[in-house]
Every structure is written in C-alpha cells, then in structure tokens.
Design a protein that fits this description.
By secondary structure, the protein is an alpha+beta fold. The chain has nine helices and nine strands. A hairpin with a 2-residue loop joins β5 (65-69) and β6. α5 (132-145) packs antiparallel against α7 (205-212) and α8 packs antiparallel against α9 (234-252).
Length: 253
C-alpha cells in the first residue's frame, strides 16, 4: 500500500463519467486516481489481483495498487503507454468522427445484438481492429465483478505509428457493489447482485456474457485461497460470493 503527497500541478484529467467525477494525477510514471463515490481504489486492487489468477497475459489488464493520495484513499497503476502511444476511448473515437454521443445513439436501438453489431462495425471500420475478443474478455470480467460502469469511455484502443490495438482492461472501480447506484445494504449480497445494472450493450451481465462467451479461465481455488487471507470487507465478501457461485455452477454443469 502506498502513501504519497501530490500537488495540483500533476492533475492530468478531471473527467465526468456516468458515475461521477474522478480526479486523476500522473507522476513518476504512475497514474493515480482518488476515490470519488466509494472504495473504488480497493475494488481496482481486488479486481486486478483476481486477473492474476486467470490465463490472460499480463499486458491484457492493468494492475492497480490501493493506497492514499494526499491522505485520501485511491489507487495507482504504472503507466502502460510507451513512446508515441495514444490512448483513445471508443466514446471519444466516435465523437471525433461524428460529433455525437455513442451511448445516446445505441440507446435508440431496440436490441442488444443491434447495439453490439453497430459498435463492433464502427471500431472495425475506423481502426481495422475487430474488438470482439476484447469485448469477450471485458464482459467475462464484468460478469464476475458486477461492474456497473463499463460505459464507452471505459473501453479503448491504443494508436501508435498508424496501427491500433486494444487497450488493456482498465477502470474496474465501480464493482463488487462498491459505489454501485443499485446497491442497498438493507438487503443481503444475493439480493443486491440481482439489482446490479450492467453497461453498455445490455443491463444484464448474463446476456452480454452469453452473447460473447467466456473470455478467459480462472483458477477459482487459487482465488478463494487468496481472498481468505484478505482483510474482511463487504467487497471481499462479494467477490467470494461471486467466485463460489460461478465455481459451483461450473462443477454442476
């Protein structure tokens, strides 16, 4: 766990998402984010640690470390851009080309399948990259961690020397029932899981997972062994609940 002091000169972005505004800093080749609505930094740590128990390659996701920034909770990650790399979200890519909000455009479409096809074709035609496999991995993760904030600014590509590639999986803070708009702790975990609303193609994580299919394998025993040694918290308990449910379903299938 880190503890740093950073002055305002290092602020590089203060952007609004569908869940609120989050202050970000860049210093000494690290990106820092302050929590804005809950324990997002802690969730970033848990989710990225979970991914180390999968068969994804290390470059396919961002590793986050929880800590304190100017005495306030948050997280940091190492800079994953090299040289002339340019990070561009799917939202920004669409806005640059058409001057319109992609989320509002897809909201007018009747089915999840239409929305997926529209965005996939747009990315292919604009970059030459088929994002299907990238989406498959992202929405497999979101189904496990109950991410409610996977809007089009949290899906991205990297541009360098005339070529695009999919960005590593990033920004998983609104997960595990932390900062989720739908959560109500008057209910138990099972009931709150039912209340989670997904993004961006459907309000159901299950439907997006079923459409794209499994994006990676998980060492569920290893995950449980790790989580049993984590300090008790609601977020840890939610992840244990999710992992046990999925593992039991796999064993009974």
């Amino acid at each position: 766990m880190f503890d740093v002091q950073i002055d305002e000169s290092y602020i590089v972005e203060q952007s609004g998402t569908s869940e609120g505004t989050q202050i970000k800093y860049k210093k000494d080749d690290y990106w820092y984010k302050l929590d804005s609505r809950g324990r997002e930094g802690y969730c970033e740590y848990l989710v990225s640690k979970l991914l180390t128990f999968t068969n994804l390659e290390p470059w396919e996701y961002i590793v986050y470390e929880q800590g304190y920034i100017n005495g306030k909770p948050g997280c940091r990650s190492k800079n994953y851009l090299c040289g002339d790399d340019e990070f561009i979200t799917i939202y920004r890519m669409y806005y640059n080309e058409f001057g319109r909000n992609l989320a509002k455009i897809t909201a007018t479409m009747e089915t999840m399948e239409e929305r997926i096809d529209y965005v996939t074709r747009f990315v292919k035609e604009s970059t030459g990259v088929d994002p299907t496999e990238y989406f498959r991995k992202v929405f497999t993760l979101d189904g496990i961690t109950l991410n409610e904030d996977r809007h089009f600014n949290n899906l991205a590509l990297i541009y360098c020397e005339g070529q695009y590639r999919c960005a590593p999986i990033f920004d998983n803070g609104v997960s595990l029932l932390t900062a989720n708009q739908s959560v109500n702790w008057n209910f138990d975990i099972k009931e709150n899981v039912k209340r989670v609303v997904a993004k961006p193609f459907s309000g159901s994580h299950r439907k997006m997972y079923e459409y794209f299919g499994k994006g990676f394998d998980v060492d569920y025993k290893g995950v449980i062994d790790w989580l049993e040694n984590e300090p008790p918290s609601k977020e840890r308990n939610v992840l244990i609940y999710q992992v046990e449910i999925i593992n039991n379903n796999l064993q009974n299938s």
